[in-house]
Amino acid sequence: MIGTVYEAALGGQRCWVRGADYQTRELPVERWLGECDEDPCDAALVARCEGPTIDLGCGPGRVVAWLTRRGIPALGIDQSAVAVHLAGRRGARALRGDVFDELPREGWWQTVVLADGTIGMGADPLRLLNRCRALLRDGGHCVVEFDPGATGSETTMQRLESETQVGPWFSWATVGLDALEEFGQRVSLRLKDVEVFGERGIAELAAI
Ligand SMILES: C[S@@+](CC[C@H](N)C(=O)[O-])C[C@H]1O[C@@H](n2cnc3c(N)ncnc32)[C@H](O)[C@@H]1O
């Protein structure tokens, strides 16, 4: 996802994702740049964030900004310099980095957020959930967005495109609720609650 096409999209250029089947879908950049209370799924997601919260793949930081304004300590991590810059501009504390590298206060966070498809980062959801568990304190929880239309876990090649640029292919995972529950169990995260809002679903997984 990193790269100039994504960053141009954050700058307002129309941009889409092309799958290996050559089908395209628009990137929901407006949502990423918007506010959490403009969308019922985002509102439900932030309502589940309690205590110190770390948002992995935070993009331009709408979740972190929303929590910060409400007095909840929150930190975003993203590998895109532009995303981190935009997050900072809206009052969200964010660090540039890879979620698989060492992060601040591992084992201390009460909530880990994976919003808007970021369960697909690294194309290895089991590894990512294991990473989330390592960041959480005992009794913490993970709030993960998933695709209610998907079953199992699938990794596909995608690339970002705009009218003027074509990015490199990268692999990304899509995860259904069944796979999320199974992967969670394997890394001591127990599925606790689920809410579905049309094409977006939120799962809460408790650290056990
Ligand atoms: C689909 S966007 C989601 C943005 C954000 N969660 C939101 O809801 O507004 C995915 C984000 O993940 C970031 N990303 C992808 N792989 C990453 C990695 N390994 N470490 C950190 N950030 C990553 C991208 O830079 C991008 O900002």
From TrEMBL:
Respond yes or no to whether keyword Transferase is given for this record: yes
* Entry GO MF terms: S-adenosylmethionine-dependent methyltransferase activity
Under the heading InterPro entries, the entry gives:
Methyltransf_11, SAM-dependent_MTases_sf
Which residues does the UniProt record annotate as the domain Methyltransferase type?
55-144
Record's Pfam families?
Methyltransf_11
Q: Which GO terms describe its biological process?
A: methylation
State the UniProt keywords alphabetically.
Answer: Methyltransferase, Transferase
According to UniProt, the name of this protein is Methyltransferase domain protein
Q: Which organism is it from?
A: Mycolicibacterium obuense
- Taxonomic path: Bacteria, Bacillati, Actinomycetota, Actinomycetes, Mycobacteriales
